[in-house]
Specification:
The structure holds two protein chains of two kinds. Chain A is built from 14 helices and 20 strands. By secondary structure, chain A is of the alpha+beta class. In chain A, strands 1, 8, 9, 10, 11, 12, 13, 14, 15, 16, 17 and 18 form a twelve-stranded mixed sheet that branches. A four-stranded antiparallel sheet of chain A has the order 4-5-7-6, covered by helices on one side. In chain A, α10 crosses α11 and α13 packs antiparallel against α14. Chain A is globular and about 70 Å long. Chain A starts with a helix and ends with a strand. The N and C termini of chain B lie close together (about 5 Å). The chains are: A alpha+beta, B mainly alpha.
Chain lengths: ~500, ~325
């Protein structure tokens, strides 16, 4: 961290007085990283929040992770599992000589206990629990998972750092883990809530030998310390980065891009694309249970205008209908001709044919994510032009989080998500999600998609699933948007991802 | 006197109890689910319901209220939902930056406002008086977050004179931490000096027009003695009142300034607690603030005794 004039004053005063300061000496190569807020928990099984993933992946590890092309790669497992021909049995080798931060050695009992807890307490684990027949240790360093039915996304779920299948020592496994103990390259040294989380290098860490690729491969532990500093205000993160206080700042406002580009101290880091804003549709009750009205809604939305109003700069959004961006293996154009019709006249006709009676369309949104609100405002104008009666319910995020669980209170709520490495990682397609999207053809495709193990066939099925998203208007992808982060000039080894990590970071 | 203080303390208990009750009701009337917020965007309603049960938030409101009152009477303000720590511990951790930010900014306010206010009143209608009023109006009108952002950008980021934000890392000593408070104190000091300046000027103007000031001058007393000894002493009561109120407001957390400069004080804590629906922390902060407010008011009233012998309780 750069010392300012004011922070140097005590040292100057001490020198003038002829005394030496007795302050502790800071470790070399400390990285101060500004994050958007405090992590609610250090147990990544218990949260699906990105900030929890960003922080905890440094001290907690999973059996698998993702490489830079979002393919699953081994982390605590020795290699990818042996999967039986019927797709029901996964035999996983566990690496030997791995030490937890409490000094104990990892074995298959720890892995079994951790995976069982994941199936019981983690949102994503619970989602797959009914398909898991057993998790057993079949050797000191071998675990076997037996499925009751094939489930292709299992490895992606085991690799994801969000609602993560983290591996803990068997001894600490409990419903609530008070002190998290992991195997990661860094361990927690001190946590002062709302001030910093200090991580220091874990000296007994055994890294993989493969070259680094995404979160997989070698974890070099280059910084001595990593300090995550919660800075909720985005402008404060910008100023902190530009003044040299932080080497990395997450979640910066689009308006700061120019200043970062011109700065001699920092560089912008654009994650392109980061994610997609979503109009989540209520299929359980209310106006949008009528497919004809959903189709009118889809036809009326002025996607270009909504994205421009939301992000204001072409650098930060892309008008793109397919559910995965260019360059991703899941990319398909199936059904995307229904995207961005921006045809209020056609929508008006559809509404008339559907016998729309003027029942208000309730859009639940929050100004805590200003781009959500701006998209809703623009959409409202076009929807009203098409003949919809629109009611905006603008609340804070905490209230939205509560109201969206009651299907009687909304027709659309606005949210967003990063692009996830496996479609099944999002619950949007699932009939049991808060959207409650159920439709016989779609449900059959989804069931086949999750049980099919042949990758080529899964790609084909995902095309069918995407087509259903448009044809049945399961939910509406508004477009793609980019995320802006910032780094100190010369910072290397930090890839642009929604969950940035710093074990290979160095300032050149 | 003792009777008066006891009466005020009794009143203080009633005020704090009322605040406690209002705080409890208001935070629960507000929609929003702390459990859903903690679990993240992909958590299911069932997950949130389970967490609510674990946190005791599914119990009847009356049961929650009675438990809260009984615990508060024993000094137990409950545990933060978010930090999983006792509220008293969470608040204690935020006290240092807020207390020192308050003291520094009040000192800066007084250093700016008192001499200018006195001189502006003494030279009523002069260019300095007019300028002081204009600048005070300006300082009072500009939102503190804007002043904070500008100072942060130009004095911290561009010139590097001050740290841009925060309160120091694990290796920051006491003096380092105080260094982080200098710029926010200046911002708050400027904002609050406007109010104190206007009160000082107005109060001094009243007193300087009194007969006894004219008498003092006619007796040949020096101007400095007239203004600083006779006028200022008698003008002090309204000034003490406004300084006391300002102090109470600041100690309750300079919410915006702490947010802009990312200072982990009471103001930042309470904003975060509201956004996260951390009910025990909101309640605990309100109780502490209400108590401080009443104590500072009492202290202000007692201070009147010291500056004006005519005041009797």
């Amino acid at each position: 961290m750069k010392k300012t004039l004011v922070l140097r004053l005590p040292a100057i005063a001490a020198l003038l007085a002829g005394t030496a300061l007795a302050a502790p000496v800071a470790a070399q190569a400390t990285l101060d990283v500004a994050i958007i807020g405090e992590a609610d928990t250090f147990d990544p099984m218990r949260s699906t929040k990105d900030v929890v993933s960003i922080v905890t992946q440094h001290f907690v590890e999973t059996l698998y992770t993702f490489d830079d092309s979002w393919a699953v790669a081994p982390l605590l497992a020795t290699a990818l599992p042996q999967i039986s021909d019927d797709g029901l049995t996964y035999t996983i080798g566990i690496r030997e000589g791995i030490t937890f931060h409490d000094g104990s050695t990892m074995d298959s009992a720890d892995v079994v206990a951790s995976l069982n807890r994941w199936l019981e307490v983690a949102t994503r684990g619970k989602g797959v629990a009914d398909k898991v027949a057993s998790v057993e240790a079949t050797g000191p360093h071998e675990v076997t998972i037996v499925m009751s039915e094939p489930y292709a996304p299992l490895l992606s779920l085991l690799a994801f750092s969000n609602s993560a299948a983290a591996i803990y020592p068997e001894e600490i496994i409990a419903d609530t883990i008070e002190t998290v103990v992991g195997t990661g390259p860094y361990r927690i040294a001190e946590h002062v809530p709302d001030q910093y989380l200090q991580l220091v290098r874990f000296d007994e860490y055994v890294s993989r030998d493969e070259p680094s690729s995404g979160a997989s491969g070698k974890r070099e532990q280059l910084p001595d310390e990593i300090r995550f500093v919660p800075v909720p205000d985005p402008n404060t993160r910008v100023e902190g980065l530009l003044s040299g206080q932080f080497v990395f700042a997450d979640g910066l406002p689009a308006e700061s891009f120019g200043r970062l580009e011109e700065s001699a101290a920092a560089d912008p880091m654009l994650l392109k694309p980061f994610g997609w804003p979503i109009f989540a549709i209520n299929h359980k009750e209310g106006l949008l249970t009528d497919k004809a009205i959903r189709l009118a809604l889809q036809a009326a939305l002025p996607i270009d205008d909504m994205l421009f109003a939301a992000f204001g700069d072409d650098n930060f959004f892309v008008v793109d209908g397919p559910l995965y961006p260019e360059g991703w293996s899941w990319r398909t154009d199936a059904g995307a001709e229904l995207y961005n019709q921006n045809d209020q006249k056609a929508a008006a006709g559809m509404l008339e044919d559907a016998g729309y009676d003027g029942t208000p369309l309730r859009i639940l949104t929050s100004r805590q994510y200003e781009f959500h609100f701006k998209m809703a405002e623009v959409a409202k104008q076009s929807l009203e032009a098409a003949g919809f009666t629109v009611e905006m319910d603008v609340v804070d995020w905490a209230t939205l989080g509560q109201r969206r669980d009651d299907p009687a209170l909304w027709d659309i709520y606005i949210t967003h998500s990063p692009f996830l490495p496996e479609p099944a990682l999002t619950s949007l397609y699932n009939p049991t999600s808060r959207l409650g999207w159920t439709q016989p053809e779609k449900d059959a495709i989804l069931a086949e998609f999750t049980t099919e193990t042949d990758e080529a066939k899964r790609m084909e099925l995902f095309g069918d699933l995407q087509r259903m998203v448009f044809e049945d208007v399961g939910f509406i992808k508004i477009g793609g948007f980019n995320a802006l982060m910032g780094t100190e000039k010369g910072l290397a080894g930090v890839p642009a991802t929604p969950w940035p990590f710093f074990w290979n970071a160095k300032v050149e | 006197m003792t009777r008066y203080i006891l009466k005020r303390i009794l009143g203080m208990i009633v005020v704090v109890f009322l605040v406690l009750t209002i705080a409890f009701v208001i935070v629960r009337l507000a929609p929003g689910d702390p459990a859903a917020l903690m679990l993240g965007p992909d958590a299911t309603p069932q997950d949130a319901a389970e967490l609510r049960a674990r946190l005791g938030l599914d119990r009847p409101i009356l049961v929650q209220y009675l438990t809260f009152i009984a615990n508060a009477a024993r000094g137990d303000l409950g545990s933060s939902i978010f930090f999983n720590q006792p509220v008293t511990q969470v608040l204690a951790g935020r006290a240092e930056p807020t207390i020192f930010l308050t003291l520094f900014s009040l000192m800066i306010s007084l250093v700016i406002a008192a001499p200018i206010g006195i001189y502006a009143a003494y030279r009523r209608g002069s260019w300095l008086d007019q300028s002081a009023i204009t600048v005070a109006m300006l300082a009072a009108s500009i939102p503190s977050f804007w002043t904070g952002l500008m100072f942060q950008r130009y004095l911290a980021t561009d010139l590097g004179w001050f740290p841009a934000s925060g309160y120091g890392g694990p290796d920051a000593g006491f003096l380092d931490r105080m260094g982080y408070l200098v710029l926010p104190s200046i911002v708050l000091g400027i904002v609050n000096s406007a109010l104190i300046l206007r009160f000082t000027r107005a109060s001094m103007l009243d007193i300087l027009g009194e007969d006894y000031i004219r008498t003092a001058r006619s007796k040949g007393m020096g101007e400095a003695r007239v203004v600083l000894r006779h006028a200022l002493k008698n003008a002090a009561i309204p000034i003490i009142t406004v300084v006391g109120l300002t102090f109470a407001l600041l100690v309750s957390g300079a919410v915006v300034t702490e947010r802009v400069f990312n200072i982990p004080g009471m103001g930042n804590l309470v904003v975060g607690a509201v956004l996260r629906r951390d009910y025990p922390v909101i309640q605990g902060t309100l109780i502490v603030v209400a108590t401080l407010y009443v104590i500072i008011n009492l202290a202000t009233d007692l201070l009147y005794l010291a500056v004006d012998k005519r005041v009797k309780y």
